[in-house]
Amino acid sequence: MSTAIVLLSGGLDSTTVAAVARQQHDRVVALSFRYGQRHSSELAAAQRVAEGLGLHEHRVIDIDLGQLGGSSLTDPELVVPEQQEDGIPNTYVPARNTVFLAFALAVAEVSQADSIYLGINAVDYSGYPDCRPEFVEAFQHLVNVATKATVSGQPIVIKAPLLHLTKADIIRLGVAAGVDYAQTVSCYQADSVGAACGVCDSCRLRQQGFRDAGLTDPTRYWKKN
Amino acid sequence: MSTAIVLLSGGLDSTTVAAVARQQHDRVVALSFRYGQRHSSELAAAQRVAEGLGLHEHRVIDIDLGQLGGSSLTDPELVVPEQQEDGIPNTYVPARNTVFLAFALAVAEVSQADSIYLGINAVDYSGYPDCRPEFVEAFQHLVNVATKATVSGQPIVIKAPLLHLTKADIIRLGVAAGVDYAQTVSCYQADSVGAACGVCDSCRLRQQGFRDAGLTDPTRYWKKN
After folding, report:
1. pLDDT above 70 covers what percent of chain B?
2. CATH number for the B3-180 domain, one of 3.90.180.10, 3.40.50.620, 3.50.50.60, 3.40.640.10?
3. Hey, are the CB atoms on A102 and B98 less than 8 Å from each other?
4. Gap between the Cα atoms of B42 and A110, Å rounded
5. Which of A88, B24, B120, B170 has the most other CB atoms within 10 Å of its CB?
């Protein structure tokens, strides 16, 4: 039996990846993190998605990245930008994907999973360093030397199937795999029921993706845009 | 001002590393983890050590590796072995050093630290995959591509100064740097006040180290050995 771990935020990308993993593995364990993000509608979306896709298990892990500060996604003192900025925006959470993948690796090792999926993308993205192909390659190399499973000859494989896709391609892939994007929340400042602002980086990339794919955007917005 | 992060368990190795870092940096932030380990005397030891060495800050981060299971250090159902075993023993905690270093990386990035110290050792050790030189190299490579600091040209350096030292060398280094080893706890099954069993892997390596260094072992034991 083939088991996969999927990092599931409840957003568009990770939901698409979960649907892809569901097609390719007997057993899919979704991992979400309560890491001090501003809103909990993201976790509610992850729960809906995990149920909707019939995933085997959905675990929510508490880690307090908020206490570290440094990001507008976890620090209420910082303002989420509404314009594309030069360089890496303040929505970047320090070492977030490294921390998430490290936990996924621990779960994968205990669950005897052969794969870890994550929905990072280096095309229509916000410029975070830990969303680039070099990052995935470096983490795979780490996995190859870091774990007990590796030592006994079965390396766990890090899979980032969206890495080189446009947002429109991702949406088409997800629709083909049966994803209901109305259930997902991508917005950096979604309200308590998951309605989106329509103006943050993440919303703008998502809106453009639906336009480019020629599909109707099922997202609910709380801000006129 | 130069800042270093040190992973501090309160054991012999990490305490030695903290003392070395204290000599080389203006500011040292120690990180300990409450990760579901069986006893809390380890964290009490880390606190004593941080105070004793005059470190700038000591942070304890809660992460529940225990919920993952798979190790006798976090799962009360599994027995800590009292004999050296073939292969990797059940005291191995899946992906522990990867998870700890991932957090240290986040803290380092936010604190603008230039170095992360950890006390792993590949000579007198228990055979864990994430205590080998390949692991340190792979994590350094990951750091080089994963963080914001790196992108703007200042990579954070992973330092494992004990990697190739014998336990006796480590003890000599620590004594020269002013470490009081009576304050440290290495035992896998220490009691609530930090007294050691004297029979687990970690105790046996420590006892041999003091013998080889020709120094008196200041450890308190609760088991005859």
Report:
1. 80
2. 3.40.50.620
3. yes
4. 24
5. B170
